[in-house]
Specification:
Largest sheet: 3 strands, antiparallel
Number of domains: 2
Order of helices and strands: HHHHEEEH
Radius of gyration: 21 Å
Shape: elongated
Distance between the termini: 35 Å
Number of helices: 5
Strand order of the largest sheet: 1-2-3
Oligomer: single chain
Structural class: alpha+beta
Length: 126
């Protein structure tokens, strides 16, 4: 899209990207259909802050065991205002379970300018 916004023709953009001009036109149409959603997202992302909460839940699975040995743990991440559950993972209560649920934060940009940055590597999530 950036190439097209610089004034490059459909055919020229296709040559640069190694794609057919019809593919480029299809991409433009798909993005055009998303304009209202993207504009709302950009507005909300600029002026509304999101706060996420994490919690763990314990469930008895099968027979009753020591909670620390149970595989009946669920790690949950939800957005505070909407109470929307962003992600949840189940398993034994250990670092791997919490790291797996924290991966979701690599995909949530912290500011609008972060929309164009690569995701944070998993190794940096503690």
């Amino acid at each position: 899209m950036k190439i097209r916004s610089e004034g490059t023709s459909l055919r020229g953009t296709g040559r640069i990207l190694g794609s057919n001009k019809r593919t480029i036109a299809d991409w433009e149409n798909r993005f055009a259909d998303q304009k209202a959603t993207l504009m709302l997202y950009a507005f909300c992302h600029k002026f509304v802050s999101l706060t996420f909460e994490g919690d763990e839940l314990y469930t008895i699975v099968g027979k009753r065991t020591d909670p620390m040995e149970s595989k009946g743990w669920t790690a949950v991440v939800m957005e505070r205002a909407s109470r929307f559950i962003v992600d949840q993972r189940c398993g034994k209560k250990d670092a791997a379970l919490f790291k797996s649920v924290m991966c979701i934060f690599r995909t949530i940009p912290s500011t609008q300018s972060d929309l164009f940055r690569p995701p944070i590597p998993l190794e940096s999530v503690h």
